């Protein structure tokens, strides 16, 4: 156990085999030192150990607090302790630049997201259902707009970049609601390191998918390497199995419909047929008996009870071949769409068609927002860039909060949102840190 680790009140209770209330009493009586972060207590491992050694009534604990990682962490210089990240408070405040409506959300916050996110903890801890972020990728480059204005700098590289992300991820985790999800868009040069950081922050159990996003047309460069035409979106949740999951489906294309439902019925529309029997013989049951003068073929049984088969037949949903072979009619209009897989093709517009360098495809954002949030959920993007996430969230009737520290981002969002009549308040974080 590292001395910098800390435990929650629940973990202390579990270790000591006592209730949460008992641990609260230890804290109230100042027997156990704890620090209150927002509404919950954190106990450093050192404090916990000294409580054990000083308190003869507490039995030797079985130290089995929840490990979030697979017993390995990225190690680099200047890695700040989670506790310290979450226990320093920003001194600054928001100042209104432009007020266009009376709500708290649907807002763009101009400033360094580290301080802005910390400030948001005061009002939004546990309230954000969905976070999408597309941070700089640690490329070491500066990005300019089409008309050569400086958009943003991506000069942090290697461990400095990883620590930059890690610090923000801890705060983002606190902002997420119990049903919340976070999608982090990153390239494949650094993405696998970010995965380990996300395991550390969210717990590897809360990792859901590594989505491969096809970002452009195949590349034909001379380098001795396979063309890199994809990047990755790492998808984690606050609590596995509690996350908002709307189970959206991919609709069937016309080509796929033609392939899967090639026949056309004058009343029922496009359809295909399936056998009404399946492998395995039923010895005594209904599905092995004679139906309509037929028995299931040898070694097989009816897929449905004979009552259901008759109902299907009466509804015209059994197709009889010329040789008297019955098959079930399956209608294209009843198809629920395809389960979405983890390779997504959403190419970005070239810079000449986009309002911001590295602007992401709006359809990709809409898929994420539709599946992982409800109407009226709060969606947060703290690397807002062109405001593409905010715009998609707005169209889908979600509330939204965008943050960016680039003047170009601020200008682009202001101009585009005005043009598209998207009501947005603009605030600036004035730092006194
Ligand atoms: C890759 S771009 C995001 C593009 C965006 N997803 C879009 O579709 O337009 C990254 C953005 O993060 C912003 N950024 C970088 N560091 C930041 C920080 N510390 N605080 C706030 N924004 C930051 C940059 O200004 C830039 O706009």
UniProtKB/TrEMBL annotation:
PROSITE patterns: HTH_CROC1, N6_MTASE. GO terms for biological process: methylation. It comes from the Bacteria. Residues 7-48 form the HTH cro/C1-type domain. It is an enzyme of class 2 (transferase). CDD domains: HTH_XRE. The keyword rRNA-binding does not apply. Keywords: Methyltransferase, S-adenosyl-L-methionine, Transferase. Belongs to the N(4)/N(6)-methyltransferase family. This is site-specific DNA-methyltransferase (adenine-specific). It comes from Christiangramia sediminis.
């Amino acid at each position: 156990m590292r001395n910098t680790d800390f435990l929650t009140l629940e973990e202390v209770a579990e270790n000591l085999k006592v209730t949460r209330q008992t641990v609260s009493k230890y804290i109230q009586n100042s027997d156990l030192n704890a620090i209150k972060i927002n509404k919950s207590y954190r106990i450093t491992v050192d404090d916990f150990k000294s409580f054990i050694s000083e308190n003869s009534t507490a039995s030797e604990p079985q130290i089995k607090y929840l490990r979030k990682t697979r017993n390995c962490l990225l190690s680099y210089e200047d890695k700040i302790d989670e506790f310290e990240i979450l226990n320093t408070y920003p001194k600054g405040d928001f100042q209104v630049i432009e007020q266009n409506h009376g709500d708290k959300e649907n807002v763009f916050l101009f400033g360094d997201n580290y301080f802005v996110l910390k400030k948001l903890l005061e009002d939004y801890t546990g309230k954000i259902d969905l976070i999408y972020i597309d941070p700089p990728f640690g490329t070491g480059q500066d990005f300019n707009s089409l008309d050569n204005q400086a958009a943003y700098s991506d000069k942090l590289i290697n461990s400095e970049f990883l620590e930059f992300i890690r610090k923000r991820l801890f705060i983002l985790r606190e902002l997420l609601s119990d049903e919340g999800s976070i999608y982090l868009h990153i390239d494949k040069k650094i993405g696998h390191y970010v995965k380990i950081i996300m395991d550390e922050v969210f717990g590897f159990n809360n990792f859901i998918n590594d989505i491969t996003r096809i970002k452009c047309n195949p590349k034909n460069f001379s380098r001795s390497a396979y063309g890199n035409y994809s990047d990755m979106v790492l998808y984690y949740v606050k609590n596995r199995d509690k996350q908002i999951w709307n189970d959206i489906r991919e609709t069937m294309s016309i080509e796929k419909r033609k392939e899967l439902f090639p026949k056309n019925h004058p009343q029922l529309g496009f359809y295909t047929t399936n056998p009404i029997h399946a492998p395995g013989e039923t010895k005594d049951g209904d599905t092995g008996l004679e139906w309509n003068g037929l028995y299931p073929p040898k070694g097989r049984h009816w897929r449905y009870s004979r009552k259901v088969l008759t109902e299907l037949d009466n509804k015209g949903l059994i197709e009889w071949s010329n040789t008297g072979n019955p098959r079930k009619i399956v209608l294209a209009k009843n198809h629920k769409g395809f389960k979405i897989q983890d390779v997504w093709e959403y190419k970005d517009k070239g810079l000449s068609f986009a309002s911001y360098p590295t602007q992401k495809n709006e359809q990709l954002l809409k898929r994420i927002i539709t599946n992982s949030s409800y109407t009226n959920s709060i969606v947060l993007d703290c690397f807002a860039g062109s405001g593409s996430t905010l715009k998609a969230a707005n169209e889908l009737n979600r509330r939204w909060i965008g943050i960016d520290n680039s003047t170009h981002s601020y200008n682009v969002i202001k101009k585009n949102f005005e043009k598209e009549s998207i009501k947005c308040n603009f605030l600036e974080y004035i730092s006194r840190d």
